[in-house]
Amino acid sequence: MEHWVTLLGFLLAPISGVVSYFAGLRKSKNDFLHEMQKSINLLTSENTKLVERVVELNTQMIALRKENELLKSKIEKMSKKLEYLKTDK
Fold first, then answer.
1. Cα 7 from Cα 12, distance rounded (Å)
2. pLDDT surpassing 90 at residue 24
3. C-alpha separations of 83 from 23, 62, 69 in Å
4. Residue 13 to residues 5, 7, 8, 33, Cα–Cα distance (Å)
5. What span, in angstroms and rounded, lies between the C-alpha atoms of 60 and 66?
6. Secondary structure class of 89 (helix, strand, coil)
7. What SS3 state is found at 1?
8. Alpha carbon distance 43, 69 (integer Å)
9. Model-level pTM greater than 0.70?
10. What's the pLDDT score for residue 17?
11. Is the pLDDT of residue 29 over 90?
12. Cα angle vertex 16, ends 4, 19, to 5°?
């Protein structure tokens, strides 16, 4: 019986070491995945902000283009009027 207890004592340390190793390995993988998820969430948040900004800038650009076209048409009308006034005299 003493031999079994001694043998069990010798085997228990390596077995518990292997179990501890795998438990630590799993924890480190979980920590890595947790950190990766944080990075993904941060990138998603930043990407959302950038997309909102791009949409805002596109809206402003469209408004500026419309205003530019309006100004061009006014300049053309004024140019025609000026030409008319020059030729009238």
1. 9
2. no
3. 88, 32, 21
4. 13, 11, 9, 30
5. 10
6. coil
7. coil
8. 38
9. no
10. 77
11. no
12. 135
Q: What is the mean predicted confidence (pLDDT) over 70-84?
A: 94
Amino acid (one-letter) located at 49: K
Tokens at 11, concatenated: 């085997």
**Structural tokens at position 13:** 């340390």
CA gap 53, 61 in Å, rounded? 12
- H/E stretch holding 5 reads helix 2-88
Q: What is the DSSP string of 8-66?
A: HHHHHHHHHHHHHHHHHHHHHHHHHHHHHHHHHHHHHHHHHHHHHHHHHHHHHHHHHHH
CB atoms within 10 A of CB 54: 10
Report the chain's terminal Cα–Cα distance, integer Å: 130
User: Could you report the per-residue pLDDT of 34-74, keeping only the tens digit for each?
Assistant: 889 999 999 999 999 999 999 999 999 999 999 999 999 99
